[in-house]
Every structure is written in C-alpha cells, then in structure tokens.
Request: fold
Amino acid sequence: MGSEITYNRIAMLRAERGITRRQLADALGVHYQTVGYLERGEFSPSLHLALRICGYFEVPVEVVFSLEPFPRLGAETRPA
Reply:
C-alpha cells in the first residue's frame, strides 16, 4: 500500500471555536507542535489520540478525520 494519508479538519474546528494550538494541545496532553503536525497532515494520530480529539470537539470521528480529502468549503453549489 502507498503512503497512508489521514485528512482532518482539526484546524477548521479549532478556528471555529477560537482556540489556539497550545490550548488544544494542553487539553489533549500533547506538545503544541504535535497539533501543528496533525493539522498539516505530517503526522497521523493514534486511534486513542484521534478519539480524544473528537471527544474534545464533541463531534463524531467522521467529522474530523477522513481517508479522502474533505470538499473545500463553498465547493458545493449554493442555492441562489
């Protein structure tokens, strides 16, 4: 199997809630740079960390993580 990429919406969720990488990292018990690596797709979280991230944001796993790229916001057609 080729490179295994896990796409995520961590940066979007963090921005929506107005929290910094450091605040999220502190809540998760990880280094703030880890959050940056996750957001940029340079690091895939363990299942345990992924579930903790989803728990923090109180959303299902599929809202945060995907094996396929998420559609860009505004990519779908909007009603006039």
In short: The longest helix spans residues 47-57. The mean pLDDT is 90.
